[in-house]
Amino acid sequence: MPTKAMFLMIKQMLQRPFTNPFPVKHAPKDVTSLVEKIQKGEVKIHPPVPVPEGFRGKLHYDPERCIGCRLCITVCPANAMEWIPELRKIRHYVSRCMFCALCVDVCPGKKFPGEEKAVKALSMSDEFLIADYDKYSDNLIEEPPEAKEKGI
Amino acid sequence: MAKTTYYIPVGPIHPALKEPIRVEAEVEGEKIVKVDVKRGFAHRGIEYMGMKRNAIQTLYLSERICGICSISHPYAFVIGSEKALGIEAPPRAQYIRTIIAELERIHSHILWLGVIAHEIGFDPLLFWTWKGREKVLDILEAITGNRINYAMYMIGGVRRDLKESHIKALRDMITYYWEFTEHMKEVFLSDPVYKARTRGVAQLSKEMALKLNVVGPTARAAGIRMDVRQDIPYDAYADMDVKAIVPQDIVGEARGDAYDITMVRLYEIEQSLDIIEFCLDNLPEGKILAIPNYVALLNKIKKTEGEAIGAHEAPRGEVIHYLKYDGTRDGPAVWKVIAPSYNNINSWAPLLLGAEVADIPVVVAYIDPCMCCNDRVAVVEDSSGRLLDYSYLHKKAVEKTRKLEKELGVRR
Fold this sequence. Notes:
The complex is a heterodimer of chains A (152) and B (412).
Chain A: H1 4-14, H2 31-40, E1 59-61, H3 71-75, E2 81-84, E3 89-93, H4 102-106, E4 122-124, E5 141-142, H5 145-150
Antiparallel strand pairs in A: 1-4, 2-3, 3-5
Chain B: E1 6-10, E2 22-28, E3 31-38, H1 46-50, H2 55-62, H3 72-85, H4 91-119, H5 123-144, E4 153-154, E5 157-158, H6 164-190, H7 192-198, H8 206-212, H9 217-221, H10 228-231, H11 247-250, H12 258-281, H13 294-303, E6 305-314, E7 317-326, E8 334-338, H14 340-344, H15 348-352, H16 360-365, H17 371-374, E9 380-381, E10 387-388, H18 390-408
Antiparallel strand pairs in B: 1-2, 2-3, 4-5, 6-7, 7-8, 9-10
Helix pairs in contact in B: 4-5, 4-12, 5-6, 6-12
């Protein structure tokens, strides 16, 4: 006895895939050479799906705007912020971050002379491709440049 | 000829299980004659962590208790905290909270419908239902910024406002889901194959359901009219008339089997759509946070004493948070969580007894179990059954570390 479910499933078989497309249509034999080709511009890949407005991606930290109030350290649920007492700035470990954006809400920011409103030191970027082999790699730590120079 | 029984241990780590739990069954042919369910493999000590942090940090920690319903626990937490601290959220925030909670119920129920189709071996149906689920996840992503772990709630309100574009998208979504639910009803409830695999399987009588203390859709499928939204209304649910969905209202009688629970969940999706529509029509204007400054909020928490229970009807049943603030620190002094799966997993052992081996997936999946929610305490027993206390375990752990250090030659 044909049922509604059968028709739906057969219809589904004939439709185009609903999922987002893979970067390339078929799995490549050699990923490294594919990446090289993409960098040279020989092969085009499907771009990542655009993120919506208000997406909470990797945290961006602007040390110039940081006033050292430590409010972000108070509210951070994952303890991803570290206080650098020598510089009176913070260091942020992206690998510990849980992307709740509480620190962005609470950040008072700093007003440079000539500006009308204070601009926050912390902001959420659109960046979401943050996979890495090393959790302490440069890509995953947001800190003032002086901290790296002095090795604090 | 003597009967032979075979012992089948499943779990705690098993390809068929998404989360750790152990089921030990003895089978005689195809029939299960003895069954034991052991849990406690996913205990993470979240409540203890919460009692060491401030309330805002704990709220976001509570979002991570459950892997799939990331609004249920924060909802119960904010309701309990607001009662204990004497804060009232502005009306607009209450309505937005209700909308988000109902959106989550829709996505959780559709997820379950896909899972049950997968468990009976009907995988095309799984893909079809999850294809329909994408729409609500897109809406949640647009409103809150993420598909899961929304970080939307705050003690005394919500953090993000609904914009005009969101309201328009929500109305589009409601139209889409009215149509999609109609299709789903036709596919699930009138399909002979689905009916054959679920009718009479995992049948829980009303008496049994009351005895086992099951909650949520499991209890409603057995014919018990219980729903936190109806019994203890909170937020926007107090302004509308939410009635528990029971099978006897739909088809006249409640059998409490997997087919009935499918029906309850399908009709609850429609109820959620009605609730969202009501909230959108009556959305009040105004601010969204009672205390917008988090530092002021933490200072208030530090000065306030009080205790309360927050309850929320999660997609799987009622979730209860007990909170006590003692007025000395800015976080909860006591925090206790009871998740719906804790009660619902009780029904596995009696339902599996006498069932066939092929029905195990349906029985296990029909309550939509969540192991990480239900493991709330871990106790260790020695071989004679005596409970070992914390200080003894700590002493033993230190001893073992010292012993290993000595063996491995680690210098301190």
